[in-house]
Amino acid sequence: MADSLTDTTSVPELVGLAAADAHDAALDARLLAVPQNAAHTGAGRSTVTNQRPRAGASASPGDTISIWVDDPAAGPSSDEGPDDEGPGGGGGGSRLPDGPKPTPTAGAA
């Protein structure tokens, strides 16, 4: 719902909706749902498994809602978004690539 005095809107509940329906619900609330994982399918066959910010939070029109979706054809998504339970931190077990290694140069004579 929009508040005419402060022009804010309430974040809708998107978890459990088909991706296409979640996008429509976000737009109805004057927000934009943005998928955060590669499992999103344009045909809307995927289902929202997590969202940030949570439903009921206050947002400004035009703000984005990050959504994580699964794709039934590929099975459940392994990344269902950030865990809100408990203290965070941690890198998820993935290392960043090391990049090219410096090559030793021959010493000057």
UniProtKB/TrEMBL annotation:
Residues 38-109 are annotated as: Disordered. InterPro entries: PASTA_dom. Residues 5-71 form the PASTA domain. Pfam families: PASTA (PF03793). This is PASTA domain-containing protein. It comes from Actinomycetospora endophytica.
